[in-house]
Amino acid sequence: MNRKKKVNQILKKRMKQANAKIHKSNKPRYVSKADRAKMEQEEALAAQNDTVATAEVDSESKADAE
């Protein structure tokens, strides 16, 4: 009886592992707190650069209009 039980346990374990590989998790990848802060800082810098660039374009277009 123990031999049968052991074989069944092994087979169930292998089936479980195979199913786990097939069904991947839909969870998003973990991003550490430091990485989130770094990304936020880069976004803020990019937004600041965008506003400066648009301000320069606006001032140039006003100068061309005059």
Automatic annotation (TrEMBL):
Q: Which domain of life is it from?
A: Bacteria
Q: Biased composition, Basic and acidic residues: where in the chain?
A: 32-41
Q: What InterPro entries is this protein classified in?
A: DUF2986 (IPR021677)
Give the residue ranges for region: Disordered.
15-66
Q: Where is the composition biased (Basic residues)?
A: 15-27
Q: Matching Pfam families, A to Z? A: DUF2986 (PF11661)
The name of this protein is DUF2986 domain-containing protein
Q: Which organism is it from?
A: Photobacterium sanguinicancri
